[in-house]
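Re: that chain you flagged

S.,

Sorry for the slow reply, it's been a week of failed gels. I finally had a moment to sit down with the sequence you sent. For the record, here it is as I used it:
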Amino acid sequence: MTFQLTEPILVIGLGGVGTRLAEKTKKSLNSDCLMISHDQNDITTENSIKISTKSVVNPSTNLIRGSTLETSDEIKKNITNYSTIILMSNLAGKAGTGIGPIVSKICKQEQKNLLSFAVMPFKFEKERIFQSGIALKRIRQDSQCTIVVDNDALLDSNPDLTQKQCYDISNNAIASMVHSLKSSEISDNTNILSTSKTADDIEVSLKDSLRMLYEDVPPNSIKRSMLYVYGDGNIPVGVLNTISNITGGTFDEDSTHVEMSSEESKVIMLSSIQGETKFDKYDPLGIISSEKTIDWDEPECSIDCKLDLKQLE
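Prediction finished late last night. Pasting the structure tokens below so you have them in one place:
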């Protein structure tokens, strides 16, 4: 099965990274855009929703999520006239992990065609790992198609990169993928987006992308992989044939899609996954099935009930 992109399209960006990605996506797809964040600095357009955490300056993920519930009707109103929703969220940040599961659930309830992009944190950001795993699990459950970009896997395969360089490479990979949405097929369910830094040798870039992919999933979990080759138009046909043979010998099924760009040379892989990924281990209780979990239906959140309870002695 492949994901069907149908118009009209609305791109929703969550938090700082999500809103910036949404702005780029809007231009690539000529679509509308909605920005949602608890931080006013993230909102740069009129079509936006500010999540109010009232007087709390440094709200927790659960508080942001609870505050987002109060704007559910406004979110529903903004997505009503659209067929496809593209959700951009950075699950290394509070806005993405807090708001993402609420928005994805509303899209599912409203029977929208949902494509979600999720950027995962570095493993040294230990305080963010658990929340990101929970949020991703919920977003995947609500989406027809989820594309995951793992900054940690990119850093593991390129330990010389700085955090900013990792962010830039990941964001550029997402932007390139979005640009190709209308011209290529994407498998539904979960996909891993892997890439590399700009390289003069396309074969080296491919090997880096494979290394990044294998940081997230075992080879036997990969159902299908789409290969996007970006270059300046002077890549020899023999090189394209070589990298096609490499991927053909690695996976049961592969497809090569060639894009020409004068800015950089690199390979981006989009791999459809069946089975577990390393993100399933981010939640220690993830081994418990949802059928045996009594409180899974509603995302965990904090709300101010304003109960006037007297202290009992």
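What I noticed first: The chain has a mean pLDDT of 82.

Talk soon,
D.
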